[in-house]
Amino acid sequence: MAYETLIVEIEDYVALIRLNRPDALNALNSKMMSELADALGAADRNEKVRCIVLTGSEKAFAAGADIKEMAEQSFVDVFGSDFFTSDSEAMLRVRKPIVAAVAGYALGGGCELAMMCDFIIAADTAKFGQPEINLGVVAGLGGTQRLTRFVGKSKSMDMHLTGRFMDAAEAERCGLVSRVVPAKNLMEEAMKAASKISEKSLLTAMAVKEAVNRSYETTLREGVLFERRLFHALFATEDQKEGMAAFLEKRTPQFRDK
Ligand code: HXC
Questions:
Q1: In the prediction, which pLDDT does 85 show?
Q2: Which of 177, 196, 215 is the last residue of a domain?
Q3: Active site includes 65?
Q4: Do 103 and 228 fall into the same domain?
Q5: Residue 84 pLDDT
Q6: In terms of domains, do 48 and 154 share one?
Q7: Which portions of this protein are annotated as coiled-coil regions (predicted)?
Q8: Does 109 participate in catalysis according to the annotation?
Q9: Cβ-proximal residues to 40 (8 Å cutoff; 6+ apart), any chain
């Protein structure tokens, strides 16, 4: 499917979704958010996709929600349309793993979008920020909640109250990103990670995703119980038999998602 604001390529079981509004540093407008919801849903349903990579350009993953689009909107407009909410939540319904590959600016809604992915690989040029305070608003796609869980209250308050940007090294130090790579290698590294994930059993990968995400929603005791139930349940799959047999037979497993 052809999109106005995205470029989607599927190769070797990885769907690469590229945000593509270069004139506006990939600012997220309603069109892009609805196309992204559509592209993510399609990738999640597509049997030829086992992992998704979300990226932007060298200069910007996304510089935030489109300020031109928001500037004249009223409370009635944004509340009435539930601005961005249902389209951004489409990302949270995706059951396949999503890797964010971030170079350049990931600000405001851009940072929030990256945080909604399962993990972030950052180029050494990446800059993260929640500068909404400079516009007289607060984050609206979960930034005050997710950034706080990732980096702790003090740094999250600092980011949201001062609107300062965090570079890639700081983002790695405080656990916002899983790794930092030279900008020229970003896509190669992200695709390599996605390709490694796509070799696993998709059932198991989806179970990992559910279990880790559960840790944000529940107590430790309940989360551990949820994990244990998933662990036990996976013994009902052929992929568990195959994975363990392959180890014992010293060969590469052939998972069939069964
Ligand atoms: C609309 C944007 C934009 C944005 C950049 N542009 N960010 N347009 N919305 N968020 C446009 C600029 O207007 C300009 O267009 C072009 O992209 C290039 O940007 P410049 O500012 O000229 O580039 P530069 O000097 O390199 O500065 C880069 C920057 C700056 C530091 C990233 O653009 C910036 O501060 N942008 C806004 C960041 C921000 O406040 N984000 C949070 C948004 S609120 P023209 O036409 O002039 O060339 C948000 C809320 C989320 O995200 C919640 C939603 C529910």
A1: 87
A2: 196
A3: yes
A4: no
A5: 87
A6: yes
A7: none
A8: yes
A9: 17, 52, 90, 91, 94, 98
State which ligand 1 atom lies nearest to the alpha carbon of 67.
9
Of residues 37, 43, 65, 190, which has the active-site annotation?
Answer: 65
Q: How far is ligand 1, taken at its centre, from the CA of residue 102, in Å?
A: 16
- Residue 9 appears among annotated catalytic residues: no
Cα–Cα distance measured from residue 75 to residue 169, given in angstroms and rounded to the nearest whole number: 38
User: Is 126 within the bounds of a domain?
Assistant: yes
Instruction: Note whether residue 192 is domain-resident.
Output: yes
Which one from 64, 104, 108, 109 is the annotated catalytic residue? 109
pLDDT of res. 1: 76
pLDDT of residue 86: 85
Pocket (CB within 6 angstroms of ligand 1)? 24-25, 27, 63-68, 83-84, 105, 107-109, 131-132, 135, 139-141
Instruction: Specify the ligand 1 atom closest to the Cα of 112.
Output: 51
Q: Output the residue whose Cα is nearest ligand 1's atom 14.
A: 24
Calculate the alpha carbon distances from 150 to 59, 87, 113 in Å. 24, 23, 14
Atom 51, ligand 1: residue with shortest CA distance: 109
**What is the interface pTM, i.e. ipTM, of the complex?**
0.98
Give domain status of residue 256, yes or no. Answer: no
Catalytic choice (35, 104, 106, 132): 132
Q: Could you list the residue range(s) of the whole structural domain that residue 217 is in?
A: 200-247
Block means of pLDDT (10 residues each) for the chain, length 258 residues? 95 97 97 97 97 98 97 95 90 97 98 98 98 98 97 98 98 98 98 98 98 96 98 98 98 96
One-letter amino acid identity for 12? D
* Residue 188 and residue 211 in one domain: no
Interatomic CA distance for residues 204 and 224, integer angstroms: 17
Sheet with 60-62, edge to edge strand ranges: 60-62, 105-107, 127-129, 165-167
